[in-house]
Amino acid sequence: xxxxxxxxxxxxxxxxxxxxxxxxxxxxxxxxxxxxxxxxxxxxxxxxxxxxxxxxxxxxxxxxxxxxxxxxxxxxxxxxxxxxxxxxxxxxxxxxxxxxxxxxxxxxxxxxxxxxxxxxxxxxxxxxxxxxxxxxxxxxxxxxxxxxxxxxxxxxxxxxxxxxxxxxxxxxxxxxxxxxxxxxxxxxxxxxxxxxxxxxxxxxxxxxxxxxxxxxxxxxxxxxxxxxxxxxxxxxxxxxxxxxxxxxxxxxxxxxxxxxxxxxxxxxxxxxxxxxxxxxxxxxxxxxxxxxxxxxxxxxxxxxxxxxxxxxxxxxxxxxxxxxxxxxxxxxxxxxxxxxxxxxxxxxxxxxxxxxxxxxxxxxxxxxxxxxxxxxxxxxxx
Length: 382
Ligand SMILES: Nc1ncnc2c1ncn2[C@@H]1O[C@H](COP(=O)(O)OP(=O)(O)O)[C@@H](O)[C@H]1O
Ligand SMILES: [Mg+2]
Known about the structure:
Layout: H1 7-79, H2 86-208, H3 213-241, H4 244-249, H5 251-266, E1 269-275, H6 283-304, E2 308-315, E3 319-326, H7 333-336, H8 346-356, E4 360-365, E5 371-378
Parallel strand pairs: 1-2
Antiparallel strand pairs: 2-3, 3-5, 4-5
């Protein structure tokens, strides 16, 4: 079993991945954004605390100086007991004690503030790392995103082409097989049978030669007629297989001849209109145009119940446009071209030929309103 490329599924997968990356990117973006905001707030906090730390340090220094003074004062009053009243001494003692307590409290506060500042610094550094990582991630996701959406989203198309070409390859082989089957059947039913008949009749002639010359003469005449008919059948088969006139004369003259034959044979009034300068095109284009018209005309004969068939051939510098129209019963195009079921290869075959040459095919038909087959093929140099 060959691996099936499901281009649509691949596209879906790539698109889902792209969406996930985009979502992820947005989320990381939000994380980075709120981290940045938090960082901002934290920096402001840190500044405030730093200010407080500085103030507290100054306060501690001031208090320490005050404490030194208070202590000196206390030493002084306690040294000179006589000159200072008891209440003065007590006051000095209380003052010193109060300042000492203030120093302790303020130092404690300084410690706490420093600790908070250190903690904030640590958290700030963490936050900075988070932001840096988020930004790197956003860049990486951006790269992944553009890689996927730029290069890989094309892969669906590439694979679709591969798949289409593979499908087309198989269909071309199928169509070739069909064609061979048709030719085999035509030779079997036509010339092969006539030849067998000719051999039989020749044997009869041989046996009757001495007895009834007149009978032999008429038998030989019939033999000649059936060989002649067979010859024209063989010519027809050869023409259908490969219109050699196409190689010798080119598109328009071959078509003219073919359509005159068609009109004689099927009693459908045909008309060929050629616009533009008649010239030779590359072989595959000539064959494709001829085969397409041949199939369209065959369909008109087989299905359309039409009385007229018109072919318009437009030859421009860049492309060949073909327009085949009948006044027949029409049909439901989407139904008839939905798939190769039921062995209807004709229109599909045209489509494949046209697609292989990168041309366009359009079939317009409505029941009761006739059919138009419109195709155009780009002219290439090869
Ligand atoms: N010019 C036409 N007028 C009416 N019906 C048509 C015409 N061309 C095609 N169809 C319809 O489309 C079907 C598919 O055509 P085609 O692919 O050539 O297969 P096939 O000729 O072997 O049936 C035909 O069976 C017929 O029903
Ligand atoms: Mg057909």
